[in-house]
Amino acid sequence: MSSISSTVMEPVESGSEDSSQNFVVQSPLICGLPDDIALFCIARVPRKYHALLKCVSKRWRELLCSEGWHSYRRKHNLNETWIYAFCRDKFEQLSCYVLDPNLSKRCWKRVQGIPPCSLKRKGMGFEVLGKKVYLLGGCGWVEDATDEVYCYDATMNTWSEAAPLSTARCYFACEVLDEKIYAIGGLGSNSSDPHSWDTYDPHTNSWRSHSDPNVVPDIEDSIVFDGKIYIRCGSAVSSHAVVYEPSNGTWQHADADMVSGWRGPAVVVDGTLYVLDQSSGTRLMMWQKDRREWVAVGRLSPLLTRPPCQLVAIEENIFVIGKGLSTVVLDVGNAGHVGGVMVSSSVPKITSDDDVISCKLVAA
Ligand SMILES: *[C@@H]1O[C@H](CO)[C@@H](O)[C@H](O)[C@H]1NC(C)=O
Ligand SMILES: *[C@@H]1O[C@H](CO)[C@@H](O)[C@H](O)[C@H]1NC(C)=O
To answer: Residue 184's CB: how many other CB atoms inside 10 A?
Structure first.
């Protein structure tokens, strides 16, 4: 029984708790079935029903909220990716919505419970590790940059406070590389070191601070591409990019030809970098690494997209998410032709003019 069942029973951070002991005294997940068979069945229920499954019993609730459930689903490729969008409404309040892209009738749903102190903050970072979405730093009209970090657990549907940044940051770059969060540059209240960046290791639940002269406070955008972090920095007039070399932990200047076409939200699909050029209409561009040039993949119908947009990709589908959560899905695996208007499907928009400031994926 028991390698699987005990995995499920083991709370991640415990260590000391004797989980097999717990397991013996508990009633079975499903009457008359060994727990590993029960788990085999329950883990195959689609994610959209998980909220219901949690209502079955305390035992099921604990199971679905456990780290073991999450890793079992991931290990057996059962996890499903949902999109989380952070928006700002006309009162400048932060809100969060979630979309299950597998539903035949796709629709955005509001996620409740954002910590009140984050609601008015600007310049926050958003990142995902495992099943958790992190809201990092930020600042307000009268509030200096903060080091506070909040964390949303997508399977438990709960918010909590997480280990604070080692440096208070606002309008900074935030990326995940090798299962660590990087918080880079930006404006801090105590900017003793304007060239610093912090890394968060979830295994130690702690931040480390680093410094490099090529990191500047002025951040425009960032992306992970080819196993490296690119940040575009400087003012609009003299924009340039630097790239983080994980092999030796240094920041180098990025190649100008690649940076020249990085003029909008970017996303990587199957190792290829795509950028949405929103300067006149919306046009999807692709970086051809071997020929070192940008090519136009196609134009998106102006009736469907509402810039400014954010991009995320699930497999070969790029989700273009604009104002009011207007959402267009492009299958770049099938996009085929270059030029012309691309074929796409869309998600009914919700009635709002909210600006989408960040979109993240959580597989669970
Ligand atoms: C900034 O510096 C002041 C004094 O130097 C200190 O009291 C405060 O805690 C610092 N704030 C942060 C967020 O590091
Ligand atoms: C770090 O690696 C990059 C790319 O391999 C190289 O260009 C750079 O010189 C290295 N820097 C140091 C300090 O070793």
So the answer is: 28
Look at the chain and report how many structural domains it folds into. Answer: 2
Decide if 245 is inside a domain. Answer: yes
- Domain-embedded: residue 48: yes
Q: Which domain holds residue 63?
A: 7-75
Query: Which ligand number lies closest to the CA of residue 214?
Result: 2
Q: What ligand 1 atom has the least distance to the C-alpha of 190? A: 1
- To which residue do tokens 């679905």 refer? 64
Q: How far apart are CA 199 and CA 25, in angstroms?
A: 41
Q: Please check whether residues 123 and 244 belong to one and the same domain.
A: yes
Q: pLDDT band for 305, please (50, 70, 90 cuts).
A: confident
50 occurs within a structural domain: yes
Mean pLDDT confidence for 166-170: 93
In this prediction, residue 343 carries a pLDDT of: 65
DSSP string across 285-306: EEEETTTTEEEEEEEEPTTT--
Looking at the structure, do residues 249 and 156 belong to the same domain, yes or no? yes
Amino acid at 45: V
The CATH number of whichever domain residue 151 belongs to comes to 2.120.10.80
268 in any annotated domain: no
Share of the chain above pLDDT 70, in %: 87
Q: Of the ligands numbered here, which is closest to the C-alpha atom of 145?
A: 1
Q: What is the pLDDT of residue 303?
A: 79
Structure tokens at 67: 């780290």
- 245 with 129, same domain: the answer is yes
Does ligand 2 lie within 6 Å of residue 157's CB atom? no
Q: Does residue 189 surpass a pLDDT of 70?
A: no
- Which residue among 212, 229, 245 is best mutated to probe the pocket of ligand 2, counting the most ligand atoms within 8 A of its Cβ? 245
